[in-house]
Amino acid sequence: xxxxxxxxxxxxxxxxxxQKGSQAKAAATLKVSAAIVSQxxxxxxxxxxxxxxxxxxxxxxMQGGNWTTVETAGYRRMTAVLDDAQQNSLVMxxxxxxxxxxTQAIGQYVxxxxxxxxxxxxxxxxxxxFLQNLCQQMGMRDTYGTVYELIEDIVRELEKQDSPLIIVxxxxxxxxxxxxxxxxxxxxxxxxxGIVLTATGYLKKRIIAGERNxxxxxxxxxxxxxxxxxxxxxxSADDVAAIxxxxxxxxxxxxxxxxxxxxxxxxxxxxxxHAALRSEERRVGKx
Length: 287
Fold this sequence. Notes:
By secondary structure, the protein is α/β, with parallel strands linked by helices. A 5-stranded parallel sheet has the order 2-3-4-1-5, with helices on both faces. It is flat and about 65 Å long.
């Protein structure tokens, strides 16, 4: 890895440490030793392998290549929700189709706001997995206690912080038992910690059906999100065009083709833009 790349990583790492509050918390979040973070920040790079540089780069959210993020309508709405929830300790639920830009906006938000923690959920998480991942995002190194001990540790740490925010992304992947943790944190941290659940529209259907069928906790969850699910706007043709142009695709015909083929899924837009750029590089190379 070249020196310039390492310098860029260090610049972002220093911002990440500032955002997390300390080098130690940043290291815990990244699952690397505090010594590695200190060596990188202080320019002692000789013994650090390229694999570690890549691990840190990915952990602090540096995007590969030269991809430029565009503030689409969905990006702006998601950012506004997160800011409102954090500043006013609100509890909200956001639903939108896959690829509408929720996770991208969240990733950018937590990079620039202190005490904002992003949990990207997985189907296999049990209660302890959920809590351990939250501990990691909060920069807490001790993640080996019981479920009760981890909850108490997390609550105590959040109570010390100014306007913390927990973002439970892809919450529809959680089992009922894990999703019910939402109630625990709400009850313990009401009016002190913002909580945002994000998911596809399935989460809304699941919570409403759970309440209707009198399943444990679902009426409480529905009540605590204000019986409201904020809908993300669909990606528009104008959004697609802006993304294409920001990332080097300026031919109107190509942009229209991408708009027709992308199904307004931002992940697919990115793939199609990369494909168009590669095609253009090959064409130029043959001339």
